[in-house]
Amino acid sequence: MEAFFEFVRERYCILLKRRAAAEEGATTWGPPWTKDPVLQKYRFCNVFREDDKTTVWFRENVRGPLSEHPNVLMATIIFRWFNRITTGKVLLDHVLFADWNPSRARAVLKDLHPLITGAYVIRTAAGMTKLEGLIKYIDCMWAQRGELIAQVEACTTLEGACAILQSYEGLGSFMAYEIVTDLRHTYLLRDATDINTWANPGPGAARGLGLVLLGDAEEFRYDSSVDSAKLQDGMQHLLALSRLNYWPGGWPRWEMREVEHSLCEYAKYMGAKEGRKLKQRFSTGR
Q: How many Å apart are CA 282 and CA 31, to the nearest integer?
């Protein structure tokens, strides 16, 4: 437990140091930002998803301006399927978030490389390019957007909204949760009743929770109905601890999303400590 919170505190301290250095013009100090050799070597996501570069761009340019408008739902779905700032800028410049048009999308995106994020696994139908597959998925949802918006507007929980999104072709559990995490900051789900009681743990978070609670990364299965309640209870326990002495009171408060997200990163961190190589190296420019 202590090691888990020590990791996330140190990760957040790195962000604060880099911000301070940027404000000072980085003239007096710089990297290394930590004495932790694993954090020096490898890249880990921020504790708060809202601090990630891609999310910051999306919030400032799309989600924020549309946060009180029904268009925010499809704009979020479209952006997160690509999840790249360069692609997002093209979509925004050609008004494709508010007025989706497959022919226009195809024309302006066909020569853009890379087109989609490398962080998500995007599956499309056999024989289709990623672009054509995503256009197909978006076309389908765009045609039903009125019904979809009404469903999500009537939904009172993040978990329920995830289930609604997963009923559409191409949106699995992971992608639906990423979209819902954005919508939690809009009129659609900012008052969801389970913000502090539910999260959608993937395999990384399940491994992390097993390590934190029992020292065994294989203790819980993320896709097990038997372990589902245990995962939720364990994450709620960590959220409660974050509001005691494990997380400074002057820092932003955690929600269940931060617990789930940090457990996934902690599993990666512990793997690196044991000698496993991670894909992304830390870059001082990121």
A: 11
Q: How far, in Å, CA of 232 to CA of 95, rounded?
A: 40
CB atoms < 10 A from the CB of 233, how many?
Answer: 11
SS3 42: strand
pLDDT of residue 21: 86
pLDDT averaged over 10-residue windows placed end to end, the chain, 286 residues: 97 94 68 90 95 97 98 98 96 98 97 85 80 95 98 98 96 96 98 98 97 97 95 98 95 98 97 88 58
Q: Give the Å distances, CA to CA, from 283 to 12, 41, 43, 180, 280.
A: 16, 8, 7, 29, 9
209 SS3 class: helix
pLDDT value, residue 30: 61
Instruction: Please give the C-alpha separations between residue 220 and each of 104, 144, 173, 225, 232, in angstroms, as whole numbers.
Output: 46, 37, 18, 11, 11
Cα–Cα distance for residue pair 43/178, rounded to 1 Å: 20
For residue 83, give both structure tokens: 């999840």
Is residue 199 within 8 Å of 260, Cβ to Cβ? yes
- Cross-strand bridge partners of residue 281: 42
Cα(128)–Cα(269) distance, rounded to whole angstroms? 36
Q: What angle do CA 46, 51, 55 make, to 5 degrees?
A: 110
Q: What is the model's pLDDT at position 29? A: 56
Token couple for 139: 């076309």
Query: What is the reported pLDDT for 27?
Result: 52
